[in-house]
Fold each of these.
Amino acid sequence: MTTFDDITPKTIEVLRANSAVVGQLDWLFINRDLNGRVRFIVPESVEMSDVCREQVEALYDVLADRIAPHAYPKGSGILYESSREQVCLGVSAFLFGDFTNVWLIDRLATESHWETIADEAPGAPRIVFFSIKGGVGRSTALAASAWTLARQGKRVMVLDLDLESPGLSSALLPPDRQPEYGVADWLVEDLVDNGDAVLDSIYATSDLQTAGSIYLIPAHGGDPGEYVSKLGRAWMPKATHQATLETWANRLNRLVNRLEDMLKPDIILIDSRAGIDEVAAACVTDLGAHAVLLFAIEGQQTWTGYRVLFSHWQQRGVITQIRNRLQLVGGLVPDDERRTEYLTALRGNSFALFEDTYDEVEPGEVSDWSFEEDDDNAPHAPLPIRWNRGWYGLLSLQQRMVQVDESEVNAVYGVLLNFLGRDVGKEHME
């Protein structure tokens, strides 16, 4: 029996066994469609040569037998195109296995892809707070970070992009300061070219006593309205006047750019949705993040989820494009005698996650990515956030922020705050 997970290894085996046929092709695309069925896409010149066409057809027939039912019927499994550029129009392609002339096109039902890593955005550094699972203290840490940076006189822009589980605004805004609209409203209005009508009403400033400012863009406004119906449309691509489609991730990026132009922040903090879905993908890979904070608590569920994500990045050959932006954050670290044991286990599992992404260098050579497990400056070294009863299980985090003092915040979040000040775009924030 062949399942979806068998497609790639079996395809690589077939191509290697027929390397002479594969090697004579200028290019070959493995096209896996939305249903998980595979076709070949090859140059039109192959179709014009009886010998070459018969060889490629025979190769596809062998593959179809090996990966059935995940192949098109023999006779309809090969497409011919005039150029590589035409094949790649509007899609992402990645080198397949260890071949230099074979690419994979993986067509997905979602528009945001974890393997498309945007360049770092110019302007204010964008810091994404991300976790595989919820309940790890991610949003609370973001609120504390925003408060501290604003206390230092920074203009901080905070986006709640956890649209399906919103709530960050309650940490930084009292009910009477909630804006009329939020991110979901803009995404829906933008579909009908009405985004500008709500743009000035999707953010509000915090009333926390700080030298700087906190501009919060919540998921929804003070009155959510038909929020569920809006969510069902927020992820839609937009038909442009040029008869093309603009993905919702590009629309979201356009919104962030507009807000940055308006508010002139020194730093942008983004609360991502937890998990591995297209919303989180947009936050982590599409918005030009300067740093992605990977929140983790010690437990098998955490590492299973992160291994899935790292494995995908490695398979697609993009791990080197994202790894220098990643930083593990250890959440809910016990504030008692268990602390050392907890952090040791967390570091060990984190190192195992990152280890395969680090460069191997010969003795005497230098590499920024030859990290050892005990290297405190490595991205796998967890930035610990102490568990503190005063910060968890609160009915009103906003009231807690009003009462907080700087020494308490530093005691719980000091290592994370030092990282933000020392290592993340400090030159931009000064």
Amino acid sequence: MSIRPILEQRAAQPTMEGAGVHLHRAFGFQDPSELDPFLLFDDFRNEHPADFMKGFPWHPHRGIETITYVLSGTVDHGDSLGNQGTLGAGDVQWMTAGSGILHQEMPKGNANGQMHGFQLWANLPSSLKMTAPRYQDVKAPDIPVITDDDGTQVKVIVGSFWGKTGPVDGIAADPQYLDIFVPAGVKKTFKIDTYRKAFAYIFRGSAAFADASQPHGVLLEKEVMGEEVNIRDMSGNRTLVKFGTGDEVTVQAGPEGVRFLLISGAPIQEPVAWHGPIVMNTQDELRQAIKDLRNGTFIKPAH
């Protein structure tokens, strides 16, 4: 077994999207190979309705999948295919844009005016860029939650973990998407297949992750003597942690516990041509997508 090294830790940066939604972006619109197959991750936590109520009006997507996970408040959605619905607290939507879709997402706060959720973009390989669009809307009660003897809780949104399989059927990235809570003072190790790229996003509490810049055996030996080697403290205030290659992540929860997302997926390793919400493989494909938008042929007829 080998601990994944910590390649980088950084705070999500405030930005604005849609019609004026204030959110924090952990990564996106920079190096698409950074966390391949994932392209972008946004945290839309907000306690001021004026900063999110205008939402994300009609906009296109092609060539990607978007994964929306709501913790507080609701998100109303609709699309050019006639689909519509509402995501509530704990619900997940996995949208495969594929060949193209126009949709809108309109967040609403809870009874206290609070909104919190995440959106992750996953790339599609060239063979699936023009696949038919589809939705997977999953309600909170259908997502398995595993509670370990030490109080650790893991919500399995996508993929398999500790004998449970999440209800979302990922298409291309063979993803694993976990929402994890580790109680105060508890130390826990989580296995991740070595072929996946992985990151953690800490959004509540604090924790320390074991780094792998020392051999694993040395780390264990030091731990027996009550010392920690190469432990990095992480604030829970919207912190992204990028991991290198290995097959496990070890976390020591802080005095108030820690809650974080642990997300991993198989790299696609293909060229990326990216313009806003459209992600293709070549500039010609990108130009064609923009031409389709202008010509009204962006949405492909159902067969």
Amino acid sequence: MADLTNPIFTDENAARVHFEALRWPNSPTCPFCSSTTRVAPLGGKSMGPGWYHCKDCRKKFTALVGTVYERSHIPLTKWLLVTHLLCSSKKGMSSHQIMRMTGLTYKSAWFMTHRIREALAERGPLPQMGGEGGIVEIDETFIGKKADVPVRAGYAHKHAVMSLVERRPAGAVVRSFHVSGTAAADLLPVIKVHVSPATHVMTDEAGQYARLNKHFAAHDFTTHGKGEYVRDGFIHTNTAEGFYSVFKRGMVGIYQHCAEHHLHRYVAEFDFRYNNRVRLGVNDSERAAKAIQGTVGKRLTYQQVNFGAKTAPV
């Protein structure tokens, strides 16, 4: 647990130095032209500390340019504090709680947490999970309620989240997606992109997984409807169920309400904490530092938060 009396949470200059060290571990880099050799700090009192000038593209900048913190009027000390709180709370922390702890308005706290979740999300081409000798569990869960869809038997009125959980000796890792439905046509394209064909996949008896053996090295399943949850000691989806136990407790107990176009960011938040947990050798301070490094190259405007895409990129 990080010391919340650390100066980076109270002193703006200490926060700036900490952030610069995480973003530029070797030397300051121009966010406009990527130059490293012709970057120098700006002198004088008018600009204040933390300003740099690139002699190649002749632009000035701070370490916040090109990050989710850019153009924010909220002090960097509060950004670092809220990032730490969100990353160190196993089931998340509500914007109302952050408002009470930091003195920010609810609107500011809410926008901050969404920006931080954007930093936690994995982007770009990701390596496939599993591989020869690897095992990936596939399962889905349901959360919340779709707008303008009446409550009915089953889960048609709820949002669907699918998770791919790769078993590893040191501890499992997860990759989750907000999907539009749970039919094979909704799930199989995502699974094929993210799971290696050489993988042994494991699911429950749901019909949408019936033909996975045509696409992967092996497919085993357990029949939950008959009370079967483990077979032969290793055929199960209990690792995925364990992840969902934390995810659903956080979504229902902490966040309580989540609009559909925000769900993919919450999913990214829970994935990040699970993949950077203590069992994998990552403590709270290291987790927060990794989250801060993830702010680079990502921007999120207020309009994008409110009217963003309903599902995360495949």
